[in-house]
């Protein structure tokens, strides 16, 4: 199965040496291969830049990291709808990774934005699986073109942050395979990432790395030979995980005695260990081959970071005030204009080279303007004095630019949002400005969608998401017309959070039911006839375009649609043509529209460009629960060509050969009871239901009603505060730690609280104090 070099290394390793490789050396490295000159493999977080922690004798999670260029978040990059741009960003991040001696980049994150409340949505590309996969493929290809290995994450159904280490994603067969699994399989097949990271959560009752989703769907069906690793502290059952195709547990720093015992007592076949070790050796060999000097340039990287932001900003509204002339009398309002929210919080947080603000750009370009805070960015408390100052400086100005956005402690890895509202002090500011000022331009800095109740009262809205360290430099160029905005929404902006069916089931307990089925994001709204504030795929331009459908070419594997796009304006701009698929006569339930193709090109002023958009027939398939495979249904398909999910200028019907579908049920009642929902499953589902009150998967927060639990929680929080002096990091890690299960103590204490001691702690919490204490003492 592996080459002679790998087999020759494997043959000379003892069982103890082989098993030692299954757990990391520390927080960021795979152990050096014994009896060889193969060095330790070095990991680093991504995805919007490199987060390589500063080397110290004592490795800690979320420690200070080396300086690196901070790029736009994946949420903004996804809005670019530009495959080559995402490839170039991945390539440049890899150059800096090589420059800092990093072998594996832990990126990209390709989880779907099932619901906008997920606190980590800024790290993910889209609510649409096709767009998300296309972005991930190009990001991975860019990274690996520079001989740095990419790690696709988080496999799979890691769609919420609250209780992420113990939550149970309960999902029907078709939705699992057609929407969530197919996206990962498509990305793995086309990009061949060197590594895959499993997620924290359970799926239908079992942790991901203990299921056939890994063993059968990835290892066997895709014949995937890459490294499969856990997320940090995600390991639950080592024996079950290695049996199902896992290779590496992270982080390390302790001895895996349980695995050695399992091999010796025949509960784990040593061949399973050998296969995992072979893949680890292969990774080490590849890393050794890849190591070479980097041609990384900070200047070129920062230029690309700016271009990436420019290409991705989404103009949601424009009543003609943009682009603005540089001689206008301007008021610049908002604390975020001076202290931008340019990246998200958590493991993706980059230590940037140099952050540029919109305020800085106004000064650098010689703008005459007045500035006011308008609000504080660390609290939602309304400060009437700050609002009054902002209104006074804005009154009688010919243009008012207001920068709004979410505060750092409201949106982060480790916890979810509770609503989609902007801070109340910003909304109060907007109420006053709308009444007393004119020509208001709003810039929105956020990691995910927000509600925009003031939309009717302003003249323009520019969505910048988290745009990286050079984002505001690019924003100034777009606002002043040096570039036309060409980003398109990779997620839906809502009127009301409850318009999404998934909201009813999101964070409703440890068991998370995906009752919305295949209807995620815009597919939910459009299939049920609901309106969005701004639809998926939407975005304005300074230019004006005309469209002419030319035709479609058909071959065995794909359809190629051809469209002429004419720029009728005097402004150069890029345009995005999108193709959605529907099937009105389908014998199974389907979404009304599904994105299946897109293309973005520059169209110069007064010119016409032909767009060719490929649609792969594989991307038209549905999952058949009767045959347990993706199939193309025979018959007529409708293809909607347009500029968003809700705006189509041409409908084309095409007959395709395929399979005859005869599947029940052929309708999907969105609103159903749990009992009704479970009829869509092929096998019984295990809910989280453990008889003893406390167990290894009980969280720290749930043991805080015991004195022992309170003490442990207090000690853990003190340790976090000692590890980091950054308030945001402490806030995020405290939130995440409260939701961590007791089993995570083993890796977080470098093995001191091994499984026996964790079992003893559980016994003590369940009032079996003496027996528990004995287990803890024995260790």
Automatic annotation (TrEMBL):
The keyword Transport does not apply. It is an enzyme of class 3 (hydrolase). GO terms for molecular function: beta-glucosidase activity. The keyword Hydrolase applies. Keywords: Glycosidase, Hydrolase. Belongs to the glycosyl hydrolase 3 family. This is Beta-glucosidase-related glycosidase. It comes from Acholeplasma brassicae.
């Amino acid at each position: 199965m592996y080459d002679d070099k790998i087999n020759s290394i494997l043959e000379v390793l003892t069982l103890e040496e082989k098993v030692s490789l299954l757990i990391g050396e520390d927080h960021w490295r795979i152990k050096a291969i014994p009896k060889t000159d193969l060095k330790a493999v070095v990991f680093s977080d991504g995805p919007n830049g490199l987060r390589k922690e500063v080397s110290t004798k004592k490795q800690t999670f979320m420690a200070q990291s080396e300086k690196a260029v901070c790029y736009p978040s994946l949420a903004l990059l996804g809005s670019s709808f530009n495959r080559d741009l995402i490839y170039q960003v991945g390539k440049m991040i890899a150059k800096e990774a090589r420059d800092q001696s990093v072998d594996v980049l832990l990126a990209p994150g390709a989880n779907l934005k099932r619901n906008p409340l997920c606190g980590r949505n800024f790290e993910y590309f889209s609510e649409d699986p096709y767009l998300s996969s296309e972005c991930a493929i190009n990001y991975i290809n860019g990274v690996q073109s520079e001989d740095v290995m990419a790690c696709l994450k988080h496999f799979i159904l890691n769609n919420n942050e609250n209780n992420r280490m113990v939550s149970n994603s309960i999902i029907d067969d078709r939705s699992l395979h057609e929407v969530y699994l197919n996206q990962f399989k498509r990305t793995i097949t086309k990009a061949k990432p060197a590594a895959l990271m499993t997620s924290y959560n359970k799926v239908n009752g079992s942790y991901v790395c203990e299921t056939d989703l890994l063993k059968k769907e990835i290892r066997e069906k895709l014949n995937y030979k890459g490294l499969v690793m856990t997320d940090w502290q995600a390991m639950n059952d080592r024996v079950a995980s290695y049996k199902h195709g896992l290779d590496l547990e992270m982080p390390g720093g302790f001895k895996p005695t349980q695995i050695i015992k399992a091999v010796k007592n025949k509960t784990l076949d040593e061949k399973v260990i050998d296969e995992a070790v072979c893949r680890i050796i292969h990774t080490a060999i590849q890393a050794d081959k890849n190591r070479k000097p980097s041609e990384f340039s900070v200047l070129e990287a920062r230029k690309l970071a700016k271009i990436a932001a420019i290409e991705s900003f989404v103009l949601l509204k424009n009543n003609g005030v943009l682009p603005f002339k540089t001689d206008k009398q301007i008021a610049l309002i908002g604390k975020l204009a001076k202290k931008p929210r340019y990246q998200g919080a958590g493991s993706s947080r980059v230590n940037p080279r140099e952050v540029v603000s919109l305020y800085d750009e106004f000064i650098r370009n010689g703008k005459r303007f007045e500035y006011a805070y308008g609000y504080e960015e660390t609290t939602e408390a309304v400060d009437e004095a700050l609002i009054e100052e902002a209104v006074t400086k804005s009154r009688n100005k010919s243009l008012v630019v207001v920068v709004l956005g979410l505060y750092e402690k409201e949106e982060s890895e480790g916890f979810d949002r509770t609503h989609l509202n902007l801070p109340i002090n910003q909304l109060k500011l907007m109420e006053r400005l709308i009444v007393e000022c004119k020509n208001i331009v709003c810039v929105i800095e956020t990691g995910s969608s927000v509600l925009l109740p003031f939309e009717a009262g302003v003249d323009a809205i520019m969505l910048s998401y988290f745009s990286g360290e050079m984002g505001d430099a690019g924003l100034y160029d777009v606002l002043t017309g040096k570039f036309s905005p060409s980003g398109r929404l990779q997620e839906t902006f809502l009127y009301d959070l409850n318009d999404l069916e998934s909201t009813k089931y999101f964070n409703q307990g440890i068991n998370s039911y995906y009752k919305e089925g295949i209807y995620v994001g815009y597919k939910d709204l459009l299939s049920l006839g609901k309106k969005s504030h701004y639809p998926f795929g939407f975005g304005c331009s300074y230019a004006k375009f005309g469209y002419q459908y030319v035709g479609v070419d058909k071959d065995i594997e794909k359809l190629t649609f051809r469209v002429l796009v004419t720029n009728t304006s005097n402004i150069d701009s890029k345009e995005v043509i999108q193709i959605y698929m529907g099937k009105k006569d389908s014998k199974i339930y389907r979404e009304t529209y599904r994105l299946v193709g897109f293309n973005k090109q520059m169209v110069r002023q007064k010119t016409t460009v032909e767009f060719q958009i490929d649609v792969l027939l594989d991307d038209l398939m549905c999952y058949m629960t009767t045959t347990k495979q993706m199939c193309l249904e025979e018959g007529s398909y409708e293809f909607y060509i347009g500029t968003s999910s809700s705006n189509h200028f041409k409908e084309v019907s095409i007959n395709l050969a395929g399979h005859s579908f005869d599947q029940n049920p052929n309708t999907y009642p969105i609103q159903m009871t749990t009992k009704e929902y479970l009829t869509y499953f092929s096998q019984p589902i295990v809910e989280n239901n453990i008889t003893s009150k406390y167990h290894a998967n009980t969280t720290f927060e749930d043991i805080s009603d015991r004195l022992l639990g309170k003490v442990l929680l207090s000690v853990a929080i003190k340790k976090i505060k000692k590890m980091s002096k950054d308030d945001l990091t402490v806030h995020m890690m405290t939130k995440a730690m409260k939701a961590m299960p007791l089993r995570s103590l083993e890796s977080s204490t470098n093995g001191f609280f091994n499984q026996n001691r964790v079992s003893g702690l559980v016994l003590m919490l369940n009032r079996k104090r003496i027996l528990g204490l004995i287990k803890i003492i024995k260790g």
